[in-house]
Design goal:
302 residues; mainly beta; tm1086 (SG structure) fold; Thrombin, subunit H; six-stranded antiparallel barrel; six-stranded mixed β-sheet; 18 strands; globular
Length: 302
Amino acid sequence: MSGGPGAADQAAERQAGLLQSVAVNLLGVVEHPVLGDSPYRIDADGVPYVPVGDGGIVLHLRLGDSAFVPAGDHAAPGACLVHPDEAARHALVLYSCIGNEAEVRTGAAVGARGVVGKRGESGRVIVGFRQDDLARMRPGDQVRVRSHGQGFRPAWLPADVAVMNIDPALLAALPLEAAGDGADRVLHAGVRAVLPARLAGNGLGRPAAGWDLDLQLSAAGRDGAEDLLLGDLVAISDIDGRYNLGYRRDWLTIGVVCHGSSPLPGHGPGITPILTGPAGMLRARRDGAGHVGLTESMLQLQ
């Protein structure tokens, strides 16, 4: 490895991230699930269903569980945060990064500490907490998020590879390896699966810094997806995520699986983009069953 984030470099990388990224304290409010006048959504086969798990506080779903949740719709592991002011809501989701620290400031779970995931859709930020803390929380609780990471760029990153949506300290702990120097530098990333752009669904055309990208997968085993787990790293080819997510030949985007599957057409397990760049500079190594993405142990949520 040359210039990559090895174990010996993680402390220095963490300190560099703290110095180079701007930290901002944000306020999020735990969301209550909402439905329209009809209790139903319509699945890809035209069958009505009642959506469960799309927002609010989702219990007993954890990092490392399958992203294919038969009884759920976009279910995410933890509590979803929003803000009643629309402009503040946009700032909450844009500034927050995976791995940022969160703390409950009101309610029965006051003082509980969690770690930010990130969804983005509808201005939502996901925060993972220990299960006993989640059980004490309720919609309306206020949560402080210490956001930092947007704009941070580590020195070992290849020139045309962009990074976003991730805490600098957590980036240094992911299965990444940089090799080569200068214009020949390449970043290798270990992932659960490498998927084609034709599976990209909801999220195309949206800003990558504030939205996730749904993968149009209804079940494990299709299109080489195996059983994606919440917290896995997944690569999708020919998608450019530098600004608004869209098709670009010979490009690669890598994201973290942030929420579960959905029966809605065009929807499915969601990935939050963290790395994007030309396929010659950003390469995915398919680790399959040996892959280890974000875990509760890594985030100290056990």
